Amino acid sequence: MQEAAKSKNSRIVLALDFPFEAPENRNKVLVKAQSVLKAVHSHICAVKINHHLVLPLGTFDGVQQLVEQIRGQGLLAIMDAKVNDIGATNQTIAQYYFAAGFDALIANPFIGWEEGLKPLFEVSHKLNRGMILLCYMSHKGASEGYGQTIIDSETGKKTLQYISFAKKALKYGADGIVVGATYPQKITEIKHVVGGKVPIYSPGIGTQGGAAETAVKAGAEYLIVGREITLAVDPAKAASQLLDSINGV
Length: 249
Ligand code: XMP
Description:
The protein is α/β, with parallel strands linked by helices. Helix content is about 50%, strand content about 20%. It has eleven helices and ten strands. It has helices at about 1-10, 25-40, 50-70, 85-100, 115-125, 140-145, 160-170, 185-195, 210-220, 225-230, 235-245; strands spanning about 10-15, 45-50, 75-85, 105, 130-135, 150, 160, 175-180, 200-205, 220-225. The strands form two sheets. Strands 1-2-3-4-5-8-9-10 form an eight-stranded parallel β-barrel, surrounded by six helices. Strand 2, helix 3 (about 50-70) and strand 3 (about 75-85) form a beta-alpha-beta unit. Helix 2 packs across helix 3 (about 50-70). The protein is globular, with a radius of gyration of 17 Å. It binds xanthosine-5'-monophosphate. The site of xanthosine-5'-monophosphate has 21 residues, from strand 3, strand 10 and helix 10.
C-alpha cells in the first residue's frame, strides 16, 4: 500500500459501490464500475470491492475482470467481505478471493483468534496477501459492539472493545485496521495504541458525514471513499477535489 500510495501520490481507496440493479440488468453495474475506474484511477491508490459487485457480477466473472483492470493500473484490490465465520470456512473464503486476484481481505475481529482469525491469517500471509481488521465501524450502531466496555480476557481489566481490537491487531500482525472517519477522536485514540505500526483505513467520508481532512489529521493513513465519488455527476472531479483537500495535510 505504501508503494502504491507513493507512486499514485494518493491515499484514497475507492469503494467501488453502486446501488441495486434488477438481476437482468446486472451488466449495467459492470459497465458503471469500469467507467468510474477508468475516470478516477489516477486519483486513487487502491480499490475496495464489496458485495455490491460480487453478488451481481460473480467472483470469477465480472469481479475478476475488474480486479485485472485495477491491478493493471498499478492499484491494489481489497475485498471487503468482513469475513466472520469459523476458521475452515474463512480459509476457503480467503482462498477464493485471493485466487480471483485480490491483494487483501477485510475480516471481523469479533470471531476471535483460535479457529477464527488464525487460520485466515495463516492462509493469507502464506500467499503474501494482506489481512485488514475492523476496529470501529463508521455507522451509528457501531457503539453497540465496537464501543462496548469489556473485561479483557487476558488482563481481567475493564477496557473498551475497540482499544482491545487495536491491541490485538498489533499482536496478530494485521496489515491494516478500519476505523470510521465519522469518529475522528477514536482514530486518534487508536493511533496512540498502534503507533503507526498498523495503518488505519478510514471509511465514512462525505455521504456518511466524515471529513477527509479531519480523518487524516486524526491519524488515518488511507481514506475509503465510495458514493461521494461513484455517484458523483463527475467522479474524476469529485476524486480530484477530495485529493486536493488532503494534499499537504
Ligand atoms: P461510502 O459510500 O459511505 O461507502 O463512502 C463506504 C464503503 O466502506 C464500507 N464501510 C466499511 N467497511 N468498515 C469496513 O470495513 C467500516 O466501518 C465501514 N464503514 C463503511 C461500506 O460497506 C462501503 O463499501
